[in-house]
Amino acid sequence: MSKSTWFETxxxxxxxxxxxxxxxxxxxxxxxxxxxxxxSDNTASFAQLGFxxxxxxxxAKRDQATTVMGQNxxxxxxxxxxxxxxxxxxxxxxxxxxxxxxxxxxxxxxxxSKPVEDVVAANPQTFFQMYWMGSKDDMLARxxxxxxxxxxxxxxxxxxxxxxxxxxxSPSIPEKMDLRTMLKLAPEGxxxxxxxxxFARAGGPPDLTAPNLAEGATPAPTFFGAxxxxxxxxxxxxxxxxxxxxxxxxxxMLKGVCRVDDxxxxxxxxxxxxxxxxxxxxxxxxxxxxxxxxxxxAEAVGGDVEVLLDGGIRRGSDVVKAVALGARAVMxxxxxxxxxxxxxxxxxxxxxxxxxGGIDSALLGLNHSSIHDLGPDDVVAPDGFFRAxxx
Length: 391
Prior knowledge:
Structural class: alpha/beta
Order of helices and strands: HHHEEEEHEHEHEHHHHEHEHEHEHE
Number of helices: 14
Oligomer: single chain
């Protein structure tokens, strides 16, 4: 990676992404719902936590390797599934190549812009993500396609709610990229010529479809067409969660757990792992940051299932705080999307390198030779910081 394209923090990746992307595309990545209370708390909460460092006796070597849902990974960071990564022509395939190069796993969204077959070919350590949408036959067909493609686990995301409206305004996302739409968006694109040139070289603008939701030989639905199907599907029960887990038959993560009672129900449903998450603040605004509710969930079910955290990770020190408070690993979303937008595959690798370096520095300061040595005593939290929901 050349010096001119390298960045040293995730914040710099975000600044570069903002400069490179059309405003509507950048706004779609920023997202958040309503007043953005949860979105802001996801990152601000990490800044409220401190460390209790040592000054001598540190190990010369520090180990970050761990496992998630049976997959050996080189660091306690995996990529969270996010929809339609059309911020770069290579999209999820670039992310797959980057995560494979850095020895970690990735989640692939049902709403992804690239087919599961192409992504698994680039990174065999791919977990396929599904929403509860459509008929059970539709969902079985998606599972079978993911299984045939070689996906090594399933992520069920159930925490997406109908939270509409943003105080700072919602981006205008078109239904499809036809000639009329391209003419309408031309002024935005011309303001970002490098982004436009990247897609021109790749054959044209993103088509905004969801190929992993195609049924049989029918064309892939548009993002909003698929979104409409999800909206019209009756929400799942805990029996439905158990059904999905049983039908998949392999490693299974339930994403979006914030409450202790829900975590226990997930254990009863037979899940392999849970992700403590509020959907990156794109959900019910006012839901606490995941790091605030993590310790209570981990204490309740950490001996029965793997507990991960998803939300607000911007630094390696954030990862260390999460692991110290009970997470096996974390999942990153916006952080790698900023990297993808800034510099494609190399940008995602850059983000992962930033996190790896930050984890190593924090371990050094805390005198630990392994992430598995971390514990609550390493973290300093203000009074009233943590929340125990559903106890």
